[in-house]
């Protein structure tokens, strides 16, 4: 009986470690140079151009996080150069893009700062 209780306890501890991260964002440094993330970044830049009149070029992804929620949320941090900017300043943006299981993309959040 002790062995069964010990095995049950070990399974309980192992499962707690798995489920404690469910729903939270996971760091994904392996996706920083991924082609699909670069396409999502381009999609977000197009959205920023039409919604905020912010035209960017030379994107460089610096951080990617993912969250599994009825599809996948991608939280992407990137730096870019504003077009027609002669000051040489960079714009840093964080965008959250939801990609449904049917591959429909939607922008959930954007935040940019020029410095």
TrEMBL record:
Keywords: Signal. This is Cystatin domain-containing protein. InterPro entries: Cystatin_dom, Cystatin_sf. Residues 40-83 form the Cystatin domain. Gene3D superfamilies: 3.10.450.10. Residues 1-17 form the signal peptide. GO terms for molecular function: cysteine-type endopeptidase inhibitor activity. It comes from Adineta steineri. The keyword Signal applies. The lineage of its organism: Eukaryota, Metazoa, Spiralia, Gnathifera, Rotifera.
């Amino acid at each position: 009986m002790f062995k069964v209780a010990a095995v049950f306890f070990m399974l309980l501890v192992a499962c707690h470690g798995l489920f404690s991260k469910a729903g939270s964002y996971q760091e994904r440094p392996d996706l920083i140079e991924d082609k699909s993330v670069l396409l999502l970044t381009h999609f977000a830049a197009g959205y920023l151009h039409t919604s905020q009149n912010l035209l960017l070029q030379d994107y460089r992804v610096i951080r990617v996080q993912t969250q599994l929620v009825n599809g996948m949320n991608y939280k992407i941090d990137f730096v870019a150069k504003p077009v027609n900017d002669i000051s040489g300043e960079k714009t840093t943006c964080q965008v959250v893009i939801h990609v449904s299981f049917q591959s429909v993309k939607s922008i959930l959040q954007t935040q940019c700062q020029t410095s």
